[in-house]
């Protein structure tokens, strides 16, 4: 392609965008000025443009370090679809592609080269790159370099040495998720001197946040998915077995659901991932093995069938929804067993004592988010040291968080824990409180305790929620080294003695899933009704073209672009060029086909 140095012109002509997104322009200017930088930008903020655009505006080669082959494949496909010469070095390419890349680098026509961290660490690769006029190194998912990051990848440790062997080439690092500890670790491992730091916030206002205590996971998921029929989404599970069961259950209920986990054959995983990327209305039920590098912009929902590992993991996983800026929905189900399992995983890990301490704090923060008494977004952003007014469209803002003086209830729970010897889990305490004589209760003689039956006025589900809140408030702790036994903390003793009142939430005692409020978030771009005939025809054409090219559907056009085409109904190439996301290369490649569909509906 012809060399153009004006970033704004490249943004319009190549990528089809009329303006920068918030935060992009300043970062692009910093890269163009030759400075090193670390940028923390929310998912969907357009991080890739921040290094792709300077790569096109300047001479030389840009090397992009990327963690997943699937991510490289999709980004290279998207760039080449926009008329940009790009390639990827990883274990999946054939000899012909390797020769094409070598030729493009030698002749100076290849602008972006995606490399896995493993390939970058190879001595021959570094020696070759040192002779290849590398002007910029961009590191995607930079939190993987840090031991504090939730996706720590040991192979990322070689990146710092690689850039030193490239004579300290200009380096830019990007991530969507990095608290202060992770941020400092990234800087120390990658840079000799502190780079320019850009923190553009963690807020994703188009995402609706909702949590619910587990009651009946199947019914809760179906109630949630009933609002999203025909839409693409992800359901995260804590085990491989759960992914298979939930995917099968959803299939029986009429959803197109595909499992994804590390225990599956690689070819089957790749096939399911390709179906999800290329087609509409597919639900992937997955472990956390699925997600990093999945750059599908029109994911309309993410649900967690079990509590995630941490707030960072939660933020990263829900961040896969709504990357196109349009409203997307999230739901996280959680329970006492989830909390116990997460704590046990931390204690049984090979982490250092210091890292275990950090992980415990992160888990405690997540538990607090689950039982938050105020706006979810406020609680989430506060963890990342950001202030926010109430969002108005999370579950708590819409349905309210009703609290009450729960001192007596907390005292009953704490008394039950003490009188049973501080060695039983939540379910046993619940049975004692409601007065249910189970085999264990009878065998231990707990049916003769003063606390036996003192909570008979409440249902077992309510007591489970109240115990979760007592744990979240730090009045009781869970014995992770044993079998989840509860014990009373110092704060709990104070509450038991009436030294301080205890406020508990009552709205979580009766589980319910709220309906989405109309107009809950401002949409970016024009939307037409989901059943609009022209929109359906445009999506069908996109699916056919994506399958023919073996690329994700969004590589052809994103949902936002199709909605704008359906609304504007352009009949000429020049009118099509005014649509968001339509650059010159895509007009040349797909313009006639999409204009013909619009024309057919105009004649109808």
TrEMBL record:
Entry GO MF terms: 3'-5' DNA helicase activity; ATP binding; DNA binding; four-way junction helicase activity; hydrolase activity; metal ion binding
CDD domains from the UniProt entry: DEXHc_RecQ (cd17920), SF2_C_RecQ (cd18794)
Needed co-factor(s): Zn(2+); Mg(2+)
Reaction(s) catalysed (UniProt annotation): Couples ATP hydrolysis with the unwinding of duplex DNA by translocating in the 3'-5' direction
Domain Helicase ATP-binding: 28-196
Top EC class for this record: isomerase
Chain ranges of the Helicase C-terminal domain: 217-366
GO BP: DNA recombination; DNA repair; DNA replication; SOS response
SMART domains, per the entry: DEXDc (SM00487), HELICc (SM00490), HRDC (SM00341), RQC (SM00956)
An annotated GO cellular component: cytoplasm
Domain HRDC: 528-604
EC number(s) recorded for this UniProt protein: 5.6.2.4
Keywords for the protein's UniProt record, in alphabetical order: ATP-binding, DNA damage, DNA recombination, DNA repair, DNA-binding, Helicase, Hydrolase, Isomerase, Metal-binding, Nucleotide-binding, Zinc
UniProt record similarity statement: Belongs to the helicase family. RecQ subfamily.
Protein's name in the database: DNA helicase RecQ
Provenance organism: Salinarimonas soli
Lineage, opening ranks: Bacteria, Pseudomonadati, Pseudomonadota, Alphaproteobacteria, Hyphomicrobiales
